[in-house]
Amino acid sequence: MTEFRSPVGTRDVLPPESARWERLVALFTSLVERAGYGLVLSPLFEDVAVFERVGEGTDVVRKEMYDFEDKGGRRMALRPEGTAPVVRAYLQYRPTLPFKAWYVAPNFRYERPQAGRYRQHHQVGVEALGTDDPDLDVEVVALGRSMCARLGLTGVTLLLNSLGDDVCRPAYLEMLRAFLARQDLCDEHRARGQENPLRVLDCKRDACRTATQDAPRLADQLCEPCATHFDRVRTGLDTLGVAYVLQPRLVRGLDYYTRTTFELAADSLDSAQNAVGGGGRYDKLAEALGGPSTPGIGFGLGIERLLLACDAEGVFPAPETTVDAWVVDTTGGAAALALTAELRTAGIAADRSFDARSMKAQFKAADRSGAPIAVVVGDQEAAAGTVTLRDLRSGSQETVARADVVDHVRKLLP
Ligand code: HAM
Question: Which of 26, 89, 235, 405 is the most interior residue, by most CB within 10 Å?
């Protein structure tokens, strides 16, 4: 073992596992670009206030943020999530609305690491700004759901709720506070429950679970516009055949949500970390960041969690990664150098051994690589201006003119 390891709570992703990541991102890209979303790349760190403004009451911002002072004395933070940076970028550049963005990026949260919970995790996600049309909610929720289906996941439940807005939520919170004041809550929420009563509904401890069983539900207290909006979202999902479960206790771990909120929960994962993704509306976020009122909705899917759910369901295995041809050169290596370059230029994936290994060692490497074809150059071939092509699966082989190698390899490929 060497002296250095990846930091606690982080992981290295190496081949062949990394090939799954590539495929997952490619699937997501095709899914969302087909729906008109464009890639947004934003910095991995921002002015700490970008996140403080949107999540002061949340653990993600209050306790878990990787914040620091840079050498110029600026207070910065590694991004704990991807929504605030996209909204900040929108306000900075003001692209035409609706602005439909997607991203793939790491996020950093100083959490207690455990299975499915890391200090650096990665999300693919979308954000759509500029309208509160419920059809957009339906589009976004359905996209999140489709991504899970595309991976082959069948045991994922879409949990749906509405968190209301500035009109109906304050009255509901008062009602909830009054209710909670009469309950016996867990230690943490006995002290802090009144401060952010919605958190109590999300608390996984038994005391809070029992105490909140009969708590008033926000869904029953929505103002007329929020109720109508939520109805339209549900009707739209029904129209598209997107199954969901209403979850009145669903509150999200970030402060900015209004109206539609949702989570994708994998039945196959341990309940504490079973959310493979989540999202919702954040119609007041742009204003919180000092911009004009700009409604928006989005979601983030955790790549690590999605892959854990795939493992648990036995779907979306790492794809076979191999080259098409392995060049075996027993004449010193110069032939392999030229042949691999020529094959690659022709679009054929090719690799070789180095260090003038023995023929036996080179064939072993070829087998290990999984390449279907070996392109062999020995003294005889070199002298005759030929190469021998061996089908590594059947063992059959033929000798062809060196000049025709690309055409012949192509013909042998499946
Ligand atoms: P979030 O629920 O905090 O939402 O994170 C989204 C997903 O990222 C989670 O469902 C989970 O799969 C994954 N995730 C979060 N934290 C960790 C962690 N420590 N380790 C592993 N995976 C994790 C957001 O971040 C919002 N920005 C989503 C959103 C987009 N809302 C609107 N637009």
Answer: 405
